[in-house]
Specification:
single chain; 82 residues; Non-ribosomal Peptide Synthetase Peptidyl Carrier Protein, Chain A; 3 helices; globular
């Protein structure tokens, strides 16, 4: 499954489980506007590490802090290619 689709599916699942309303996901959408709180993001990062086998925010020399959904997806996409 493509990285982007995996991320979107996990976000949708967490939103249902945590009873959160999501903003429409686009590359320009600021992460803080998705509709998640810090717990939701923590769950997302943990699930993506399980699903994709990496955490681009703690591994390697990439000290990337994404601001948008597109940057978030690219961080995972780049990490899975290494």
């Amino acid at each position: 499954m493509p990285v982007r689709l995996t991320i979107v599916e996990e976000i949708k699942q967490i939103a249902v489980e945590q009873k959160k309303t999501l903003a429409p996901l686009s590359d320009e959408l600021a992460l803080q506007e998705i509709g998640f709180d810090s717990l939701c993001f923590a769950i997302l990062i943990a699930r993506l590490e399980d699903a994709l086998g990496c955490d681009p925010f703690t591994e390697g020399d990439n000290n990337i802090i994404p601001n948008t959904f597109g940057e978030f997806v690219r961080a995972y996409d780049n990490a899975t290619r290494q």
